[in-house]
Amino acid sequence: MRKQERRAWICLFIALILFVGTGIFTYRFVRDGSKWASFYGNTQIYTDGQINRGTVLDRNDELLLDCTPEGIFYSDDWTTRVATVHAVGDTRGNVPSGAINLFASQLVGYDLLNGTYNTNAAGKTIKLTIDAEANRTAYNALNGRTGAVGVYNWKTGEIVCMVSTPSFDPYEGAPDDEGSYYFNNFLSGTMTPGSTFKLVTAAAVIENLPDRGDFTFDCDGVNEFNGTDFTDINEHGEVDFREALAVSCNGAFGALTREVGGRTMKEYAKKTGLSESLTFDGIETAAGSFKFPTDDDIRLSWAGIGQSQDLVNPCTMMVYMGAIANGGEPVQPSLIKDTSFIDEIRGAKSLGRYIDESTAAELRDMMKNNVVENYGEDNYPGMDLYAKSGTAETGGEDSDAWFVGFTDDENAPYAFVVWVKEGGGGSSVAGPIARDVIQTLQHTSL
Amino acid sequence: MTTVFRWIFVVLAAYILLIAIVSLLTTRATPEIWGYYMVEDGGGSFPITHWENVIGRSKSADLNIPLSTVSNNHAILSRYDEDRWTLKDLGSKNGSFVNGRQLDPDKRYLIEPGDEIVTGDVYSTVTPPSLEESHNNEVMRSMDKEPVAPWKILLAITLFQAMTIVQLVLAMGEEITVSAVLSIVILSAVMWGYVTFFKAMGRKGFEMEMIAFFMSTINLAVTTSFDPTKTLTELIALLLGLALMIFMCIYLRDLDRTRKLRPVLLILAVVALLINLIFGKAQFGAVNWIRIGGTSVQPSEIVKIAFICIGAGTLEELYDKRNTIVYAAFSLFCLGCLALMSDFGTALIFFATYLVVSFLRSGDFSRLILTGVGAGAMGLMVLKFSAYIADRFAAWGHVWDPEFMDGQGYQQTRTMSFGAGGGLLGLGAGNGDLKYVGASNTDLVFGFVTEEWGLIIAILLVLCIITLCIFAVMSIVAGRSTFYTICACGAATIFMVQTMLNVFGSVDLFPLTGVTFPFVSTGGTSLMTSWAMLAFFKAADMRRDASLAVRGEEAWHA
């Protein structure tokens, strides 16, 4: 019988497979349980395909979304609905970046121990970091144009304003169900950055050209180079590095880009986070894309001033502004307000070093100079503003207007990005939108 | 109320099952000593701890005589009755002699105490244990850790059952039926009756039954939640299964009697499968149901019992060509029928069990037959099921892909989604929503239990099955006959493969094949068979006075 005794181990082997398999399932259950539980097939939390519990508020407790077994209710105010739909989401799941999609498991109050069991079945309340009032301001300021406005607190990482247009009323859906209405330009768009990209080129110059203090460029408004014109709106005359940024001289920055070289430019597009996608709260932003040819000075020059094939994502641009504001090390953005004490103490998560602290300081100084010299401090009353405008040639009817930068006030440490498609001049069109939104935020955060 | 209950359920379940599991895994039987094998010329004396023993040079021989004149597997010494043994030469090179007379190979010869046995050039005798030795062994065995007393577990299960009724009434309100509630009450009463009666008869080990009663309670709760009008039928099947188990336990005590029953079982099994083939009703693609007087019966479930009995054999039978051929032919027949029924899941269970049993059986010569049949069966399965497999395997591992989510992977995604919704503690019996998905109370029962009872209890149920298996393997050391050993291992394999296919299939670790979870899935035939098969585990339980399937020493020495 001993032979049979010994061979009985095969049963233990089968038992082991059963045990290990159950272990694997348990591991997956712990890892993916929230995803599984909030799957739309789960009729415990979906009535007629619509999530039936949970509430979404803005940072000031304004109701944005209320999910009940009777149906889904958004804000009563049309503008609020339209201005926040890209942050809140719609029930049909057309807006991937919406809270209703991203935070479904939090909304239903899922946790590993209790699953979707809920004593009151009302679900959980989640508080977004956005400020509905700021979103309304941004939406109204965009005034029917296609665009994106994003603002985040560069100290805490909270995204306080996120608007993408064209937008739609979630109660009605998009006209003709057209995709562009659902699309979140801020998180998922990539567009030609124009002169805002000079802030990246400038960072590369600061960290790679020690003798930039001696740099001068004689701008004749045409700036022909190897048979190609790098035209500027004005004839800037002789400019140094600092003035070149203030007046956004294409000729000068073309020359600087050539001095820095394609390889370094590529490195800086990556270092400043613009050629990578950013992940937070389950969101993955689009990644920008850039081409810096090492054998084609003309195209390299265009790329250095944010034209050519450059494409940037507004959210990553906003985070780069946060990096400059925060001494070269940006904090990670977030869309959900920290509810737990522990998260509050832990504070914002750093994304690591983008640029040197001294580089950030020099850029900051130059961006202040831009405001003083070019955009006019009087146009931005009550805020300590650092900025760069952009007017991107995209071959459309008009140029895209950009305004990026940050403020450094005790109650308003905001980094922002404003993009208006075919809006025209950067500082004249996009600038006031940024101003209105920040003023609103200064008001609401008091 | 449910909020608090969920915690109590988990604590009670953990208490019940852990005590039973720990008791099963920590109490081991000291082997009984049936006699001594005395080798002359200073060869020493070997205690004979089994009813069946191989004498040989091979290290795996039970009575190991490392001399070159002895063949590897020389002869089999089997217990005949109180003092007498039989000897069967296995075609050894130098032959075996009793009192100077050479034995014909493959024939049994009766040995009286003191008869001179010669194997090769080794002289030996078999002597019964002296009174003192018997006594010493008895003392040794009485020092074994005793099985845990059943009363605390019994109370805990009863509390669990009472709370289950309250929870079901709370959750289902007017939907629940009197017969469903009554079924759980009757289950509880039967459980007490069973334990009290056999305890009074001097039996001590009830862990396996406790595990089965607990799992059956979950079964009735699942059935009630799914459709309370079916609970009573389920209970009746359970009682039939329990009766069958008791009958089998008592029958299995006598090995000769059991062996004589085998041809009958074989014929019955063949007839059942043929009836299934001829009158079978297709359900979910597989034709594995027949209707008898208004109730659906799954013959292939019941055939499992016969399949194990026919696969098992005494040590002598394992060396018998005819026995092996009958077993192999029967296996092939079963697999063929299952293939014709398109029941891939059950075919897989039979095939896996065939492999394990064959592995346990296979000696030098039988290996060839068994491997050949195994390969043939494999070919048959591939041929028959390849289209089906290709279909099911397409979604395997990809059920969350949009193309499968609501199609081929519908049942799995629902199982995981609703299961995850249950969390670790569950939503409470009767509160689940997976029940609105087809076959949720059978093929997807693991998800059903996870949603309503929580992951902890669901995993404990899997651990119960694993425990039964480990116990079966552990008890072999003190086993009397390979017949019981193979029965227990075969039954353990069926239980485990079924659990594996059920659990892994419903959570996408394996393609969904649609088999039941032993004891837990709704289904009369399946529940009845699970209970009946418990007898095979009981028959392997050699702890002193533990099992009603084992005749105690007192009876032997009386």
Explain how this protein is built.
The complex is a heterodimer of chains A (446) and B (558). Chain A is an alpha+beta fold and 446 residues long. Helices cover 39% and strands 16% of the residues of chain A. Chain A has helices at residues 2-7, 9-37, 78-88, 99-102, 104-107, 132-142, 179-182, 185-188, 198-208, 241-246, 250-260, 262-271, 297-304, 314-325, 341-346, 357-375, 426-444; strands spanning 46-47, 50-51, 55-57, 63-68, 71-74, 125-127, 147-153, 159-165, 216-219, 224-225, 228-229, 237-240, 279-280, 283-284, 385-392, 400-407, 414-420. In chain A, the strands form six sheets. In chain A, strands 8-7-17-16-15 form a five-stranded antiparallel beta sheet, sandwiched between helices. Chain A has a four-stranded mixed beta sheet with strand order 5-4-3-6. The radius of gyration of chain A is 25 Å and the shape is globular. Chain B is of the alpha+beta class and 558 residues long. Chain B is built from 19 helices and 14 strands. In chain B, strands 2-1-11-10-7-8 form a six-stranded antiparallel beta sheet, with no helix packed on it. A five-stranded mixed beta sheet of chain B has the order 4-3-5-6-9, with no helix packed on it. Chains A and B meet through helix 1 and helix 2 of A and strand 3, helix 11, helix 14, helix 16 and helix 17 of B.
Q: What is the tally of beta strands of chain A?
A: 17
Structural class category of chain B: alpha+beta
User: How many alpha or pi helices of chain B?
Assistant: 19
The global form of chain A is globular
Strand content of chain B: 5-15%
Low-confidence stretches of chain A: none
Largest protein interface, residues of each chain: A-B, 45 and 65 residues
Structural class of chain A: alpha+beta
Mean pLDDT of chain B: 89
Distance between the termini of chain A: 85 Å
Biggest pleated-sheet summary of chain A: 5 strands, antiparallel
What strand order characterises the main sheet of chain A? 8-7-17-16-15
Number of helices of chain A: 17
Instruction: Tell me the total number of β-strands of chain B.
Output: 14
Oligomer: heterodimer
Mean pLDDT of chain A, to the nearest integer, reads 88
Q: Proportion of β residues of chain A?
A: 15-25%
State the helical fraction of chain B. Answer: 55-70%
Low-confidence stretches of chain B: none
The value of Rg of chain B in angstroms is 25 Å
